[in-house]
Amino acid sequence: MRPNKLKVGLVQQAVADNDKQTNWQKSADKIAELAAQGCECIMLQELHSTLYFCQDENVDAFDLAEPIPGPATEYFGALAEKHNIVLVTSLFEKRAAGLYHNTAVVFDRSREIAGRYRKMHIPDDPGFYEKFYFTPGDMGFKPIDTSVGKLGVLVCWDQWYPEAARLMALAGAEILFYPTAIGWDTRDTDDEKSRQFGAWQTIQRAHAVANSLPVIVANRTGFEASPSENDPGIQFWGQSFIAGPQGEILAQAGVDEETTLSVELDMERTEHVKRIWPYFRDRRIDAYDNLIKRWLD
Prior knowledge:
InterPro entries: Aliph_Amidase/BUP (IPR050345), C-N_Hydrolase (IPR003010), C-N_Hydrolase_sf (IPR036526). By secondary structure, this protein is of the alpha/beta class. The chain has helices at residues 20-36, 71-83, 162-170, 190-211, 267-276, 279-282; strands spanning 5-12, 41-43, 86-96, 99-108, 113-118, 144-146, 149-153, 175-180, 183-185, 215-219, 221-224, 234-237, 241-243, 249-252, 259-266. The chain has a single domain (5-292), classed as Nitrilase/N-carbamoyl-D-aminoacid amidohydrolase.
C-alpha cells in the first residue's frame, strides 16, 4: 500500500574533478544523512559522478560513460538496499560504441534497477554542447513504478517542456523529478542572472500547478571551469527546491552550498488538489491535434 505521507529528499553537490569514487562517496554521505532523517525517496543531481563535461566537444569525454548495469549502478543500488530507500540517480550511459545517453536510473530499496529514463530533449548551446554526447531518449515518457508511487523522472532540459510533464502526469506519475545541471555564464549581468533563475523555477512550479503534482528539483552548485580557452566556465546556481502540487515552495537550497533538502509530502492533499482544480477533466483533447506539429504555418 502506498504511503499517504512520504518524506522525500535531494542532494545538492559540487563536483571538483572526475574522480568518480570521491564524488560517489560524497553523495553516499548525503544519502545516509537523508535516510537517517526518515527520507524514503532521495534524488541526486544530473551527471553527479563527474564534472559537467559538456562545456566543450571532446571525444575523450566518452571514456567517462558506463554501461547499465555497470559500476555506478552497482554502487548506488547497494546504497538503496542498505538504506531501504528509493533512489533516483543520473548517469552517462554507454549503450554501445558510438551510442550514448543521459540516463536517470531508479532503484527501489534493492540493488535491482526499478526503471530508467533517457533524456528526451537534448540542448546544444554555448557551454552546453549535449547534442555532441547524447542520443535523444527512445523510451518515451513513462513513470517508474516504485514502492512509494509512480515517479515521473525527467532530466534538466526536459524541465522547460510542459509536454513532457503533462505526458508523465497522463501516464499516472504521482511526483515529478528533475535532476539538473544548470548555471550562469559569469559574464551575465546580475539582472540577467535573476531573470534566468526566475524563469527556470517558474516553469517547473508551473508544471506542479498544471498537473497538480509535487515537483522535486536537484541542481548542481559550484563553479566548473571550461576546458576551452576564453570560455568563462559555468557557475552552477544551485537553489534546488521542492514544490507542492499548487506550485508552493516547500524547501529551497542556497546558491553556493553543498546541502540536502527534505520534506514530508502529504499525498492525500495532492489528491484533494486534483479534485478542486480538475484540469484533466476539462482538457479539450478534441482540439489539441496541432500540438504535435512543429509549427503552424
